[in-house]
Amino acid sequence: MAFLQKLFGSSKSEVWKQLCAEIGAQYVDGGFWKGDKVQASHGPWTITLDTYTVSNGKTSTTYTRMRAPFADSDGFRFTVYRKGIFSEIGKWFGMQDIEIGDEAFDRDFILKTNQVPKLLELLGDSGIRELTRQQPQIYFAVKDDEGVFGSSFPEGVDELYFQVVGVIKDVERLKLLYELFAETLDQLCKIGSAMRTAPNVSL
Fold it and tell me: Is residue 196 within a helix (H) or strand (E), and if so which, with residue range?
């Protein structure tokens, strides 16, 4: 067993249980069909970490995601992800890319929003910018729901959402991701885009 762990690394469950121990979260064994998840509290919010798999013919892709529903105040939406060749092509065709005045951050990330002043306020927090930089791959957004194949939320509830391809089995990276969610939820309250009350939603 020790040889296999050395060869393949720790399992997802081992790493995620370690994360629970370090941040005071709960590990939920969902069994074969539902899958395991981690649920952590920050203020009135529940932050959920899990994986899901999308099948496409003969292949399938597994994603790691983190989610936190919250009571929305003003309909603020944003999306942040790292730049790549396709995002650069998209800019040629007029794709939105907001700049916040942080040269390194603007160089590395694509930013979209429906309220530019609010995004500037949110990312005016240097801690949030640094925690975002710590994620080697990132898709980070506020969404109104999870679309046709995911959860739908009642009016007035949005979701802070992160996903990447693959299974994250790096406990330090997961701790930084949890911190990113915690700081962003707090900042959304400070800028008037979220209420510090528990949404009536479970994941």
Answer: none
pTM score of the predicted model: 0.88
Q: How far is CA 68 from the centre of its chain?
A: 8
Q: What is the DSSP string of 151-187?
A: ----TTEEEEEEEEES----HHHHHHHHHHHHHHHHH
Sequential DSSP letters for 67-132: EEEEEESS---EEEEE--HHHHHHHHTT------S-HHHHHHEEEEES-HHHHHHHTT-HHHHHHH
Domain borders along the chain are 55-195
Task: Return d(Cα 34, Cα 163) in angstroms, integer.
Answer: 18
- pLDDT (tens digit, 9 = 90+) per residue, 142-181? 988 655 445 677 888 999 999 999 999 999 999 999 999 9
User: At a CB cut-off of 8 Å and minimum separation 6, what does 124 contact?
Assistant: 100
Tell me the two tokens of residue 35.
């899958």
Phi then psi for 28, rounded to 5 degrees?
Answer: -110, 115
